[in-house]
């Protein structure tokens, strides 16, 4: 028998699946009607199409009351791209490229399942576990001392309603918090996604060259070739924003600051440096300082060794 949770999950996965098809088919209109336009125009139009689909999704959620699941959306998009690759693009590529692309996708699926289920560093607040953890702190604070929580970088996630060790941010796409236990896996997945998208771009451009689909007008190419074109645009957009996202996370690791800390540093006392103004009393300013920054090399080492 299915319980309410299962029914809801199946509902949101179905909605996600429908939305992936809606997104990809709407995107395929761009190369069909604007095949002769420059790449920049096609990319801009694709962004508008994606925004329109997201807007429509929000409207549907209000109307039907069932929301899509973000991790399912990621999964189905990946399967869609993989499907287009297997059905259309792979015939134009070398055996070596085929092995690379399929290998990266299989590893991504394993990684995604792992990050969805892995504990990011959960601290049940108020439980004996959390008190023990705080008491055993080398900093010597009492269990009920709130600043010891801050100093051990345990932060609260509003989405999970839980305290997470080494909390970076809540990632809706991976359906989990990113914390001490899965931060490295998160970075590996980011790089994995970029690798999959870049290799897809290489494969699909090889396909486009071989069948000269870029030189034909939108109505001279069939649906399969059209999908090869639109998924290429989709992957190019993904590479662009994920590249920025990855750069940001590398920056954070190099300077030993977490995304949440960077955004909400005014909430955390250890990041605040009170500077008395020389012009007179009562005009103190709060400046940002990072007590965890021990130099790039040490920060990266600490991140990789998962030391506290
Ligand atoms: Zn969370």
Task: Calculate the mean pLDDT score and round it.
Answer: 84
Classify the helix fraction into a percent range: 55-70%
Total of helices: 11
| Percent in strands | 5-15%
Largest beta-sheet details: 3 strands, antiparallel
Uncertain regions spanning at least 5 consecutive residues = 132-146
**Can you tell me the overall shape?**
globular
Kindly name the structural category: mainly alpha
Which strand order do you get reading across the main beta sheet?
1-3-2
Distance N terminus to C terminus? 44 Å
Number of strands: 7
Q: Give me the Rg, rounded.
A: 24 Å
In this entry the ligands are: zinc ion
Order of helices and strands: HHHHHEHHEEEEHHHEEH
Can you walk me through this structure?
- By secondary structure, the chain is mainly α.
- The chain has a domain at 4-119 and 180-254.
- It has helices at residues 4-27, 29-33, 39-64, 70-89, 95-117, 128-135, 146-151, 183-211, 223-254, 259-263, 296-305; strands at 122-123, 154-157, 162-165, 169-171, 176-178, 272-276, 284-288.
- The strands form three sheets. Strands 1-3-2 form a three-stranded antiparallel β-sheet. Strands 4-5 form a two-stranded antiparallel sheet. A two-stranded antiparallel ribbon has the order 6-7.
- Helix 4 crosses helix 9 (223-254) and helix 5 (95-117) runs antiparallel to helix 8 (183-211).
- The longest helix has 32 residues, at 223-254.
- The two termini are 44 Å apart.
- The model is unreliable at 132-146 (pLDDT under 50).
- Bound molecules: zinc ion (ZN).
- The site of zinc ion has 5 residues, from loops.
- Residues 157, 159-160, 170, 177 line the site of zinc ion (ZN).
